[in-house]
């Protein structure tokens, strides 16, 4: 136990150092993309209510989950709306939250062996510190999902061990927070609570804990649904954009895994025409406009939709495709060239920062060269050189050995570790791995069914680390049981 108390602050120091290394050069005003949650948080902090996910005074919204928005709004109230100071405060929160998640993992796994505890903590810290676009990237919201998932695992194990300990209190807190964080965590919490209820089915006294937690979760969902009914005029239990996401990933995208160009040309945050349509219709009617076409496409080609689900499942459990087909640039194009590139869909300019994003960085170079030539750019050579330079960086990051390794480390390796743990355990994984698998399944299922990408995979790192730790412990136990050589 003493070693666990030393490992927790050591993990915090590792996370703090990694956060500084990732972000210190970039924490300056105008260099940050606050995205939809940041826009809604700004509206809250400025007294406009939970609204305007794409800016522009478009009105009430349920496009994003409330809990991350409330956290950002609190930072804005304390340090200024969309300021560098607020970004630094959120980064400190991320470090504290991930440090707390690491401490929860150390505590949860301590009874199952030193190998499990130490290996899981090491894997967790490595995932957080080393993954590109990981939870320590400035403005990443994954830290909150990771903390809630780690607290859910800890609470489930504690509630199983002792009904009078702190586990039930943490379980109630998670039941309140998870549905307001995202749909995956809401489902994962439901799975855990039902599993606890089943395991306590012979003990009425212990059954009170999961049923009370279920009531807390229902109250959280009910409260948010009631707010949405008043603000939007309809019942929206968690988020409003289901039909938009379903259409984006299963109609606009041929393989169920949207490319950058598809996303940026359909999301009102980036596309002027989509924003104007969203603003004109209002959020409920805008989302409804995708419902009919999405359902018609699914009815006409159900096998294609099933194939999309299977491809997303492979993306989540075998190899997580990280590249989205886009690459950021800070090159300052001539104004007339920038207008032509944006109009053609080759480039998107982001806010006031002057940053841009090439939307077809994974396209055939000869095709891009021809497209740039047809645009009649005043400085075609400069545009081509910038695209080619960013393409080389893209290939090195996503298609080299490191990119391939990360794709497996964030999907297939933890699943393989879980399966090996179960095999070494005689067909059943150790309790922490089994609970982690249930939580991870719940966190992934809604997105595998609708729209999955690496952003949905990142919050799994705590559960993936538990799978690795349990596998290491199972291997150590098996080796320790070998008979001595004669």
Features:
486 residues, 69% helix, single chain, disordered C terminus, mainly alpha, 3 strands
Describe this structure in words.
This protein is mostly helical and 486 residues long. It folds into two domains: 310 residues, no CATH class; 75 residues, no CATH class. The protein contains 23 helices and three strands. A hairpin with a 4-residue loop joins strand 2 and strand 3. The longest helix has 29 residues. The protein starts with a helix and ends in a 6-residue tail after the last helix. The relative contact order is 0.11. The C terminus is likely disordered.
Question: SSE order in H/E notation?
Answer: HHHHHHHHHHHHHHHEHEEHHHHHHH
Query: What percent strand?
Result: under 5%
Report the mean per-residue pLDDT as an integer: 90
**Largest sheet data:** 3 strands, antiparallel
- How many individual β-strands? 3
Q: Helix segment count? A: 23
What class would the helix/strand composition place it in?
mainly alpha
N-to-C span: 36 Å
Radius of gyration: 24 Å
The 3D shape can be described as globular
- How many domains is the backbone divided into? 2
Q: Widest sheet: strand order?
A: 1-3-2
Low-confidence stretches: 482-486
Approximate helicity band: 55-70%
């Amino acid at each position: 136990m003493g070693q666990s108390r030393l490992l927790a602050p050591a993990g915090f120091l590792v996370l703090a150092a990694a956060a500084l290394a990732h972000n210190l050069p970039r924490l300056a005003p105008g260099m940050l993309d606050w995205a939809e949650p940041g826009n809604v948080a700004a509206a809250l902090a400025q007294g406009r209510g939970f609204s305007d996910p794409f800016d522009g005074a478009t009105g009430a919204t349920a496009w994003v989950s409330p809990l991350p928005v409330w956290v950002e709004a609190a930072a804005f109230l304390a340090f200024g709306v969309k300021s560098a100071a607020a970004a630094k405060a959120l980064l400190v929160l991320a470090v504290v939250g991930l440090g707390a998640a690491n401490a929860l993992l150390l505590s949860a796994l301590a009874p199952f062996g030193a190998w499990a505890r130490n290996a899981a903590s090491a894997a967790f810290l490595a995932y957080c510190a080393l993954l590109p676009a990981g939870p320590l990237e400035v403005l990443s919201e994954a830290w909150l999902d990771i903390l809630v998932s780690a607290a859910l695992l800890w609470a489930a194990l504690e509630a199983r061990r002792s009904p009078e300990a702190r586990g039930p209190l943490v379980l109630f807190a998670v039941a309140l927070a998870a549905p307001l964080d995202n749909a995956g965590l809401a489902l994962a919490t439901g799975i855990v609570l039902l599993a606890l209820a089943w395991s306590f089915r012979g003990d009425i006294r212990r059954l009170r804990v999961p049923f009370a937690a279920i009531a807390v979760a229902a109250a959280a969902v009910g409260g948010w649904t009631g707010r949405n009914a008043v603000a939007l005029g309809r019942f929206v239990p968690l988020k409003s954009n289901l039909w938009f996401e379903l259409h984006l990933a299963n109609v606009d995208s041929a393989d169920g895994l949207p490319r950058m160009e598809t996303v940026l040309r359909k999301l009102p945050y980036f596309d002027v025409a989509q924003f104007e349509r969203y603003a004109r219709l209002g959020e409920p009617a805008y989302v409804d406009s995708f419902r009919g076409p999405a359902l018609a496409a699914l009815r006409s080609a159900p096998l294609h939709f099933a194939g999309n689900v299977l491809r997303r499942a492979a993306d989540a459990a075998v190899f997580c495709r990280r590249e989205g087909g886009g690459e950021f640039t800070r090159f300052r194009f001539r104004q007339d060239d920038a207008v032509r590139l944006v109009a053609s869909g080759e480039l998107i300019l982001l806010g006031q920062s002057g940053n841009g994003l090439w939307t077809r960085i994974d396209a055939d170079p000869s095709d891009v060269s021809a497209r740039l030539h047809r645009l009649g750019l005043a400085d075609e050579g400069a545009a081509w050189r910038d695209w080619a330079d960013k393409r080389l960086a893209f290939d090195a990051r996503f298609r080299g050995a490191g990119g391939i390794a990360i794709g497996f480390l964030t999907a297939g390796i933890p699943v393989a570790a879980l399966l090996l743990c179960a095999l070494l355990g005689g067909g059943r994984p150790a309790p922490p791995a089994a609970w982690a698998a249930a939580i991870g399944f719940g966190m992934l299922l809604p997105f595998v069914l609708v729209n999955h990408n690496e952003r949905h995979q990142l919050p799994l790192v705590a559960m993936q680390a538990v799978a690795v730790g349990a596998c290491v412990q199972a291997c150590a136990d098996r080796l320790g049981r070998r008979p001595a050589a004669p």
